[in-house]
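Thread: acetyl coenzyme *A complex, take 2
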Amino acid sequence: MALLDSIIAEAKKLNKRIVLPEGDEPRTLKAAAEITKEGIAKLYLIGNEAAIKAKAAELGADISACEIIDPETSGLTAKYAETFYELRKSKGVTPELASKTAKDATYFGTLMMKLGDADGMVSGAVHSTGDTIRPSLQIIKTKPGVSVVSSCFLMELPEDNAYKPGGVLVFGDCAVIPEPTADELAAIAIASSQTGKALAGIEPKVAMLSFSSKGSAKHDRVSKVQEAVRKAKELAPELALDGELQADAALVEAVGKLKSPGSAVAGQANVLVFPNLEAGNIGYKLVERLAGAQALGPIIQGLAKPVNDLSRGCSVSDIVGMVAITAVMAK
Ligand code: ACO
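Output below.
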């Protein structure tokens, strides 16, 4: 079974409550009809009820099983504004600003999760990555024991791929932290390995990527990755992790043996940690386009409750898949 099909099958057993703040967005409405018809999740659509219903009717999308909540008229808004004020007053938020912010659909959805009224959120068909996850960074915060929020993609290679037919690789971070510190790279490595295990059932072998393998080049950027390797090993001594490695040393057995002899990871890595966001974002798009991999993500990892981001070019089936992933992460 393809990875996403197995994630959807698992989501169907969980009946999680997912918020879609972009409630009147056409692809979101078509996806909502499919998600509820297939029983993948219970959905809350945020926005003006009349506008959402009119748009759904125009599209022929049956959203009768979704609950529509309008922050302008909902009885929940005052409670959410109060919570936001309490959480952010030390950051200069006034009661007036809190009342206005709680009516913003993304903040409203985030506050639903914070107060236990929803299990997860998916947005980003209209909003940027920053606007989608900033409310969660402010309100939901990281899971206990996790220092930073980051992201990864599950890259499923096609069955006719010569390197690893049908294999799944995890790429992190490709969407959140532009210039990670050594500590943040270590956190990305640990979080990406956990995401790969939880969603794709892989036994993680983590390569910390660089343009150098085991000291073959000297540069501050190489030293940062070497420091990240030390930190990750301290934090997760049980994790199979090696670095710094070039991508060929990470993936190709013969090169791995040559460049990192005796390594349990080199040549067999399935979790690739990129040294910065440029490398990660460019890297996943190259593999998606040139190798025909299915890129599932960005999966936002490290938050206390799952919030996932869509690309503004997303399709209806991308939204369905991301809701299923979010439901499984809420387990
Ligand atoms: N983990 C945990 N908390 C964080 C993180 C993080 N990675 N980043 C910011 N925060 C917290 C801050 O501590 C702060 O908390 P506080 O207000 O309680 O003190 C809050 O979030 C806001 O911090 P800012 O520094 O103001 O963060 P900002 O909102 O400017 O930026 C963001 C955060 C949006 C994630 C930024 O790093 C960003 O824009 N990243 C790149 C996103 C992007 O464009 N990705 C590429 C496209 S995606 C794709 O192609 C798939």
